[in-house]
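Shapes recur. Our protein:

. . .
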Amino acid sequence: MQDVPLIVSYLRDPQAGRAISTVEGELLRVTSPAKVLTIDYPQPPRLFILEVLAGQAESTRNTVLTLRRERPLADILLWAPRATAADVRMLSRTGVKDVVVSHSVTELIAGAREILEEQQTLPRLTALSRRRNKSSRFESMLSRSTAMWDLFELCTRIAPAEATVLIAGETGTGKELLARAVHRQSKRKGRFVAANCASISPELINSELFGHEKGAFTGADRAKKGLVRHADLGTLFLDEVGDMTLEAQQSLLRMLQEKRVRPVGSLVEQEVDVRVVAATNVPLERAVAAGEFREDLFYRLDVIRMNVPPLRERHEDVLFLFGHFIKQLSKHYGFTPPSFAESFLDALVEYEWPGNVRQLENFTERLVLARPQRTLNARDFAKLRSNGVAAGPTHSPTPRDTPTQPPVDTSRSLQENIDPLVAQHEHAYLQAALTQNEGRIADTAHQAAISRRTLLRKMKRYGLDKQRFKKHATPNQTEAHQATKHQVPPEAT
C-alpha cells in the first residue's frame, strides 16, 4: 500500500487550487471533470475533489456515478458553493463522501483532511465520519449504493399510501430494517409489530396472528389479542411470509380484504386498521406454482414490490459497512481497531458475502474479538472466514462444505481453540439433520432435542435455509446463487 495518498483535484477557483496543495498527499490536478475518467493513474486515487460549476450539476452527477462504479474504493468530495439546493440534494444521493456548500476554502480543505485522516486510521475504509452526511444514512440503514438509494427514495414515496408492500431479498440484506423505515415514514399512529412466520408453529400461527378466546383449544387458559390487533393503526411485518400454512394464508387474505379478524374460538369479527408489509427470501411465484402459496394472496401482497439487492451487487457498500462495523464494534468492546494490508481489503471486496450484511457484521465482530496484534492480509481473511462457520456458505450442503479442522494455536486459550470445532460439528449436524428431514423444522428440532426457536436461531447463524433441503428444491431456488464459485482462494493476495 502506498504511504502517500493520491489526490485528484479539479478546481477552477485559483484560491482553492493553491490551498489544496497544503493537504498532505500526492496531488494530481486535472483541467476538466471528464479527464478524471480517462487518466492512467500511477496508483489508485484515494480522494477526488471536484468543483461543481454553475449549471454543471447534472454533468458532475454523471461523472460521480461513473467514478463510483469504476473506483468504488475512492472517496469523492464535492465543492458546490454555487449550486442550488435541488442540485445539492441530487449530488448528495450519488454516494459522495460530502458536498461542501460553503464558499469558504478553509472548510473545503478541512473536509479533505478529515477524509484523509479517516483513511489513515483505516486505510481505504469509507467509515462514517463524525458528521454523518445524508448520502450515507437513511433511517437506520447505511449505504452509498445508488441501487439502495433508489429503494430509499421509493420507500419515501410509497410510505404514506395504505397499499401492502412485498420486500424480496436474500437473507441478511436488511428487509426488516426497510420495513421499519416504511412504517416510520408512513407516520401511522400505531406500533410496528414483527412476526417471523417460519418461527411460529403451524398449529399456533392463527392464534399468534389473529388471537384466540379462552378455552378455544387445549392450553388456552386465557384470551389472547393476537399480533394483528396489536398492530392496529400501525404496521404488521410478516417475515418469511412464504412459510405460512394455507389455512393461515386464507385468514390473512380475508383480513386484507375485509379489514376484520376473528380470533380462534370466537364467532365475532373485529375491525382492524393494519398495513401489512411482507418479506420473503425465496420467490413466491415458485411457491404459487408449487401449490404452496395462494395465488390470490400473492397478488394482494405484491401491490408494491421492493427488491433489495444483495451485498455482492453493491461493492461500494462492502468497505463502507466494514469500516462502520469496525469502528462501532471496536468502541463497543473497548479494543483498538485492527490494521489491514491492501490484500486483506481486496479479498474483502472480492468475496461475494452470501450471507450479505448480516454475515459481514458477524465476520467483523469475530475479527474485532480476535484482537489481532499485527496487520492482517489476505491469508488472514481466508483463515478468519473458514474458521468462522457462522459466516459460512448458504448453498446446498456438500461434503466439501464442512470446514477443515483449524490448527492448534497455543497462543490462544483452550476455549478459543475449542469453540470453532464445536461450531463446525454443530453446523455439520444441522445440515445432515435438515437434509434427512427435508427441511422440516419441527422434525429436525425433535431429532436434535432442541426447541424450534433454538433451531431457527442456529439456522440463521449458519446461513441454513430450510427451502434448500426440500425435495422439490432445485439449484436455482437456493438462496446462495451457487455461492461455492464465489469463495476467495486462501492464497489470494
